[in-house]
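Researcher: Batch entry, complex prediction.
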Amino acid sequence: MNYLLWFLLFFSLPLTVWAEPTAELDRVLSALERSAAGIETLASDFTQEKHLEIFRETLVSTGRFYFAKPDKLRWETTAPVTSGFLLNGSGGKRWHQRAGAPVPFDLGREPGMKLIAEQLLAWARVDLDWLRSHYAMTLVEEHPVALRLMPRQEGARDFLDHLLIRFDTEGRHVASVEVHEAGGDRTLIHFSATLLNQPLDPSLF
Amino acid sequence: MLGAFFSALYRFWAPRRFLLFALTLLLLGGGLAGLSQLQVREDIEALLPDDLSQVAADFRRLREAPFARKILIHLRDSDPAALPDAADRLAAALGPPYFTRVMTGPASLDTARLPQWLAENLANLLDGDDLDRLAAALTPERIDILVETAYRQLLSPEGWVMKGMVRRDPLDLRVYGLEKLRYVNPIGQARIDGGYFHSADGRGALIVADSPVSLTDSQGAERLLAAFDEARTVLPPGVTATLVSGHRHTLANATAIKGDLARVLSLSFLAVLAIYLFFLRSWQGVFVFLVPSAILLVASGVIALAYDQVFAVTLGFGGVLLGIADEYAMHIYFACRGSGRERAELVGEVAGPVTGGALATLASFAVMLVSSLPGQRQLAIYAMTGIVAALLLSLVVLPHLVRPAPAGGALRLPLFSGGQRRPRKTIVALWLALLAVSALFVGDLRFDGELRAMSLIPEELRQAEHDLRQAFGDPRGQAMAVVEDADSEVALARNREVFRLLRARLPEVAIVSLAPLLPPAADQRRNAENWRAFWTGKEGRRILADLEAAGARLGFSAQAFAPFHAGLTELPPPVTPDSLRQAGLGPLVDALMVKSGMLTLVPDSAEARELFAGENPARPAGVHFVSPTGFGTEVGAAIQRDFSRYLLLSLLLVLALVVVIFRDRRRILLALVPVVTGLLAMFGIMGALDIPFNLFNIVATVLVIGLCVDYGIFMVGNGTGAGAAGVDLSVLVSGLTTLAGFGVLVLARHPALHSIGVTVLLGIGAAIPAALWVIPALRGERE
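Model: Structure tokens for the complex:
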């Protein structure tokens, strides 16, 4: 009888170990969803560090990021070069300092840009359903929340090893993102001076 | 002699009637058994030459055209954003067994393989001109801009997916490869948006599908369209979907023919029945009525034994033709009913004219035996078998079934029966006036050889095809330059020449060709050598140095563009059809490399046809140009030539037969009165009313010639004998039943049936009075 108890205990242990983090992750994600639910607009400064093999030194850039529900987004780099893009639904515009007027583009014609736009919008909206469908998530820290995201699609794994996303202390928005690429390159983005639900100038989009 | 033979035959069977009837039933039973084995083909091969002619070869090539068998579905909505979802929903709802390979966009854009593949294969694909353009474009300033653009892209979020491409192709050389893709879009006016086929105005989307249902299978087409109707219920409100394919044409025509036959045949059946009741006035008339049905069995049985497969057109049109076969039976019937003389004698008396008439009809159909159209040869066998069967049933069996009418029971009509005085001079004058007026308008008759004139295109389908052409061009109507050679290298070289010619002479035209992506192996080797020489030469070294300098200024490491440098010296393997397939261009390769050769598609314009016309010296060797428009005209012209020859031949044969039968100039001319009157009146009236003479008119004219000559032979051969009154009646009644049976087709909606109706109505309508009134009038005056 004792053997049987040991046997059951032995085999049920891994299940318990597996079930506990999943339940914990679900609880944390639910809390994140609740706290981010009321975010309609977001404006934030960002600092980006790119540690890439193809550059002799780390590339540091700064800029400003804007988001308005459901699908308006502006990513503006101000230094070391002035460039950026905005998205409004399925279309958008690009600009940079050497070009003249912004150049419109259509996400339907640019699969690469579409992929990036989906990512940025999902982080800004804290769209956990979308993130869950594209990434396998693990909880790295609970206070503040930090999640590790592994791409589920084979094509995405070619250039992305994993993402590390940290939320602000109240879990209302993303505070930083680390992009770890397959070959060892990585990009770190820190968001600061974040303003939530402030009116945004419509001309931004 | 013929009369004596049939008289003897009658006497032989008279005491053995039950045996004769039993043998007849056995023959009919055999026909029925053969009929049950019949395998029917509904395809259009019946109407296309099976010889080695250009038409036959072009038809085989056209059948392999990429869009010939495709189903195109045009989705429309005022909100372009709703279309991709609608296209996906509908595509998911369309599946086997009616729809296969359903595509909402070009398969090659499903993945990112293609841009990378192009960047890796530039060495094989770029020729000397491309390298010259490249060297001129890559100035130091341009290289600075390109490297700075790469730097900026790497700074932006886009850089996560662009880094690999920047390393492999920092100078954006792939745009020279992408230029080659301009020529592989088979739907020229389609805009590829998000992987979907969109119309230029954005308010239309396109789904392209295959189907295992044959284009000529009307029942399959009906099921396919029902499946489509069911599938499109998944579309969101406001989105419409219209299907365009050959299946809709097949179903529209089959439905129109069925509707016409149901309506016209009911009318025709009632009219024929009324004629029989009025003129035959005896239950024995049923035997005359049964002769056409009986010979249908015999002819179908024989054709089933002679051929593995029978064309539907043979059965359909042959069945119609054999409906005329009651005239021999009618002749026997009236002869037997109208006189109490010995039956064997009567049979002997009418056997000559009846056999002569049958021989004339046989001769009309015999000329079709030399046709290059398999359907016509089969039709000739079918019709000739039926006529022989009708002749034998009428002369051998029918006399044993029909009894003389009781005294006074035989019908006499005042204006037809012999002995009545008729205004002969007036008749001849009116006849000559009709001939003169008709002759005046014969020159106005115009011929319409277009195949499309023979089919019905409902307005709704015409509009759907027009809308599709407006939105996406005309992928189904493209012309093809076909290169055929067993040696693939020769074929590729010719394909390249076709492409160069079109680019040079028709630069504005949308061409679809594999030539830019699949040059001949020798060209690829030369391109690769030029490529290597270019990058190790002065210009190439200058470009690489400028790249290095620009990169260094922006902080790129020494190894940043290592994959690019490696690609310049490590040459890729030659491009082959298989490598194109691996790059995602499989559907295109399968569409443009077919059994008959390599295809280049080009809009079907007069300029393109002229460029590839036989007399053009610039035309590359070994290239066949096939244009749907030209093909329709070509087939029409070929059939027109064939039929015109048949008309002439059958007229000559009929004339020869009449000469052999009568051997007297006056009687010969008299016997030809109905056929000349019928043809002249028909051509004249059609010319005067501007009714075009199409291919079905010609087929029906062969029938008209056969019938009209029969009337002449009957009237002249037996017109003054004891059975003269019977001959009048038999010609009148068989003429009226023919008009009731076929003349009413003039009321049909379907152009082919309508044309048969017009020909028979005008030809037979003029020939009957000519036979019944003009022949006696002319004979009387001369006598």
